[in-house]
Amino acid sequence: MPTTTLFVKMILDRWYASIVNCDVLLHSLTDETLQKEIAPGKNRGIYLLGHLIAVHDDLLILLDMGEKLYPELNEPFIKSPDKTVAQLPAASELRSFWTKQSEAIKQKFENMKPEEWFEKHTAVTTEDFEKEPHRNKLNIVVTRTSHLQYHLGQLQLLK
Amino acid sequence: MPTTTLFVKMILDRWYASIVNCDVLLHSLTDETLQKEIAPGKNRGIYLLGHLIAVHDDLLILLDMGEKLYPELNEPFIKSPDKTVAQLPAASELRSFWTKQSEAIKQKFENMKPEEWFEKHTAVTTEDFEKEPHRNKLNIVVTRTSHLQYHLGQLQLLK
Known about the structure:
2 copies of one chain form a homodimer. The first copy, chain A, is mostly helical. Helices cover about 60% and strands about 0% of the residues of chain A. Chain A has one domain (about 5-159): Four Helix Bundle (Hemerythrin (Met), subunit A), CATH 1.20.120. In chain A, about 35% of the residues are buried. The interface of A and B includes residues 6, 153 and 154 of A.
């Protein structure tokens, strides 16, 4: 296996495995449980789920993979902290967004050629990218996998 | 920059940044706070800190980088769940272990040539590695960074 293909596989495997971890966890939690705080005074499960979807929508933009699927989630789940927005989408709706989004991302990832992952992402200038070639599309997946794992550790506390 | 060097940098950067995240968080928490549960009935901060050190000691073994620094932590922080072991090390002691271990790991990582990261780790057979070359040393760092982020999300709740 050429090294580039191997390296991309290592990173995408970790992303997909983290998505599956989250799927399994979500299936084990009721909508009622998702309304609970992960710890007293902290974010609710439903907020973290919406936050993950909103951040993964941003990933589509950073990877130049088209429009956000749920741009309306940016305001309540990224710009606003939990418990400051009067009306959030229902847990059932967010679950459906999560599943559709993960599938859409998977399809887009599968259409990428290994070399394309080493192109610059949309938030870095051509000039900076010449000096810092690690600021490529694959690195966005690396950092967003970290972000997902961070919040997975928190969502797990709802069990 | 040769591509292999770039791959390795992307992964190690994420590891080091996660270690720094943990350092900063630990500095912001008192020893008293570390004795608290991250959520009612869940693991205590001190348990998670000991657990991370024990898991990172295992990483040294998997990467064939010499002996564990604190083998005595395996029993209380990996084999045993929290609150089942009568006497755990003091928080101050674990903090010192954490710092020394992170520094030791950094030195060992810096001594690796980029290609060496793509050699097999110690828990995979030569036969399996031929079929699954992604089971290399660098991939151990990928998965352990995920693990660290997962527990960082939990430790953060002590703030």
